[in-house]
Design a protein that fits this description.
Elements (H helix, E strand, L loop, with lengths): L4 H20 L1 H4 L3 H6 L6 H12 L2 H14 L14 H14 L6 H9 L3 H34 L8 E3 L2 E3 L1 H50 L2 H5 L24 H10 L4 H18 L5 H8 L3 H40 L9 H9 L4 H37 L5 H23 L5 H25 L5 H21 L5 H21 L6 H11 L6 H10 L9 H26 L3 H21 L8
Antiparallel strand pairs: 1-2
Helix pairs in contact: 1-9, 1-16, 4-9, 4-13, 4-14, 4-16, 5-8, 5-14, 6-12, 6-13, 6-14, 6-23, 7-8, 8-9, 8-16, 8-17, 8-18, 8-19, 9-14, 9-16, 9-17, 12-18, 12-20, 13-14, 14-15, 14-23, 16-17, 18-19, 18-20, 19-20, 21-22, 23-24
């Protein structure tokens, strides 16, 4: 498709404005590391919430959501539980407050409050830095795999380039250009630049989402949609099996479902719930989400920020996802069917945008989708260097360097991480495979050690090191040696290996320093198996009370998941005009909102 001059002008104007904002705020970011990576902890929680939502509104994930809604219908609304998307609810209810009470800059620095600075603590510090670097590189590769596919669908120029014996495809060249541009303003402005540009990007994305939703509602009638979907496509709930028969409509979709291994949907659902609970209690991986939490002014603000993220993210994002999906179903099903097994479901989003959005509005929508990529990518680029500069260089190599030296080093580290991530991104076969590796294999290696660090006093720095090391090794090598194994099915295996490493590493070594444990327990106040430490804290401070909120936290988490799910399905029901189901979802949203107001929001405490 060839863009019109007006559309190209809108895109170029947006890119110039983004770069200008990044450079304008760079002076505020260059004061010190706290300003560069955390915005000086002066940014209001609601601004950070919008910034966090903007960072999560990535184009690669949106392309994936469109493909699963196309294939699985309303049942596809459950598949984001693989991340799980409701880890934001656990953060909102209790985890964000626990994390923020540390006053740390990074996840690695936070571990010092839990394990101290003896040898076990130092090992835990190093292993989480390694994990953070791998996860940031993995996410950069993941975003790279999506933006190139997207850009080649719209921009008219063939940028294929031959460098020596290697040919760099036009798809990769577009990705390199957009990534290079995003990296420039992110490195220059730090956290202030990321947040400032993400607020602008969020506003553009909201307009784009509404635009797509309105177009889909106006162009697609319920009768047209019913003619191109199988029975059960509009049903949110499911039985033992998926029972979606595409064989008389688009047979290749049936083959895709078989290849995914999701036909027995109830088994998949149980695995997702099991994995989701453990992963959510483990807390966020060391990336931009954790960075936003540590950037808030107080533990109470950290909780409010994560709750606000869900509130402003899900409805607009899935309004766009639903709009694009139904447009493709109604108007492109014959073309997709003619492709046979050659369908690339991840290209459904570009197919719809390039054919249904008029000139001018197309430029605005492209800006919104590019903004979705840039906000996510810039968040990762800003989060990753903190672990190397603050947790390795400053802590072990040069603790007395000037703030300017640390910030300049951060520029170089960001650049190097981007290059490595891009190299890996060139070898990713599909967005779906990258998504499943991140949410299942990589998170599987992270979960066991990070659950135990909260709930078990005897878990020490050595246990954390060995649990993370064995889990990380398993997440890297199991997919390598068993490439045909489902990423979701390997999660329990990786979890078991990591659990053995965590428990054995703890029981075969001495407990952590008692003073460190008492300070951590009395300041963070987690619930769990802390009785020996609780008794000692209580003896020193008779007024101290243990955290008895486990039951309320779990109740609020369950209600919060229903609250979040209602925000996800409401825009889908609106676009497909299922008004009765929309009314039920809205009623669930209102009831759960009122419940959370009284049993969560009104009881938030800083301690």
């Amino acid at each position: 498709m060839n863009l019109q001059p007006l559309d190209i002008g809108i895109v170029i104007g947006y890119l110039v404005l983004t770069l200008l904002i990044g450079f304008l705020v760079s002076n505020r970011a260059s004061k010190n590391l706290d300003s560069y990576f955390l915005g000086g902890r002066r940014i209001p929680w609601y601004i950070l919430g919008i910034s966090n939502a903007s960072g999560m509104f990535d184009i690669t994930g949106t392309m994936w959501f469109v493909s699963i809604l196309f294939i699985y219908g309303l049942k596809g609304a459950w598949l984001p539980w693989m991340w799980p998307i409701w880890n934001q609810i656990f953060l909102m209810v209790f985890m964000a407050s626990w994390l923020r009470r540390s006053n740390a800059m990074t996840g690695a620095e936070w571990l010092k409050t839990r394990f101290g600075e003896e040898r076990g603590g130092r090992l835990s510090h190093i292993i989480v830095v390694i994990f953070a670097i791998i996860s940031v590189i993995g996410f950069i590769a993941y975003t790279f795999s999506g933006i190139g596919k997207f850009a080649t669908s719209f921009f008219p120029w063939d940028l294929t380039m031959e460098i020596g014996p290697r040919i760099i495809s036009s798809e990769n060249m577009y990705a390199l250009l957009i990534i290079g541009f995003t990296t420039l303003y992110t490195i220059k402005g730090g956290m202030y630049s990321v947040v400032a540009t993400e607020i602008m990007q969020y506003l553009v994305m909201i307009i784009s989402c509404i635009l797509v939703g309105v177009i889909a509602i106006n162009l697609v009638t319920p009768e047209q949609l019913n003619a191109v979907i199988p029975a059960g496509w509009k049903d949110l709930f499911f039985g033992w099996k998926l029972n979606l028969d595409w064989s008389n409509l688009i047979p290749s979709v049936k083959s895709k479902i078989s290849a995914d291994g999701y036909e027995y949907f109830s088994i998949l659902f149980m695995i997702m719930v099991f994995k989701g609970i453990l992963t959510s209690i483990a807390g966020p991986v060391p990336s931009y989400d954790l960075q936003r939490i540590l950037s808030t002014k107080s533990p109470r603000d950290a909780a409010r920020m994560t709750g606000f993220t869900s509130l402003v993210l899900f409805f607009p994002r899935f309004l766009m996802v639903a709009g694009i999906t139904v447009l493709v179903l109604v108007y492109f099903s014959p073309k997709l069917n003619s492709m046979g097994s050659a369908i690339d479901f991840e290209m459904i989003l570009p197919y719809a945008v390039s054919n249904f959005i008029p000139t001018g509005l197309l430029g605005l929508l492209l800006v919104g989708l590019i903004a979705a990529f840039m906000s996510t990518f810039s968040a990762y680029v800003n989060a990753g260097p903190a672990y190397i500069v603050n947790d390795i260089y400053k802590k072990f190599i040069n603790p007395d360097a000037s703030s300017q030296k640390y910030i300049h080093l951060s520029y170089w580290v960001s650049f190097i991480l981007v290059i490595i991530g891009v190299i890996f991104g060139m070898f990713i076969s599909s967005i779906d495979s990258a998504t499943k590796w991140i949410v299942s294999s990589l998170y599987g290696g992270y979960t066991a050690a990070n659950v135990l660090k909260w709930i078990w006093w005897r878990f020490n720095g050595y246990g954390y090191f060995w649990g993370m090391l064995t889990g990380l090794a398993a997440s890297l090598f199991i997919p390598l040696f068993f490439p045909e194994a489902s990423a979701l099915n390997t999660f329990p295996v990786i979890l078991l290996i990591s659990s053995v490493g965590s428990i054995a590493g703890s029981l075969l070594t001495e407990p952590d320093n008692e003073e460190v444990l008492k300070k951590f327990y009395s300041s963070v106040r987690p619930w769990g198996f802390w009785e020996p430490i609780y008794r000692k804290v209580k003896a020193e401070n008779p007024l101290f009370k243990k955290n008895g909120d486990f039951g309320r936290d779990m109740m609020n988490s369950v209600v919060g998941i229903a609250w979040q799910m209602s925000m996800l399905v409401m825009p889908i029901y609106l676009v497909i005009r299922e008004y009765m189901s929309l009314s039920v979802a809205f009623a669930v949203f209102m009831v759960t909102t009122i419940f959370l107001k009284y049993y969560w929001y009104d009881r938030l405490e800083d301690w």
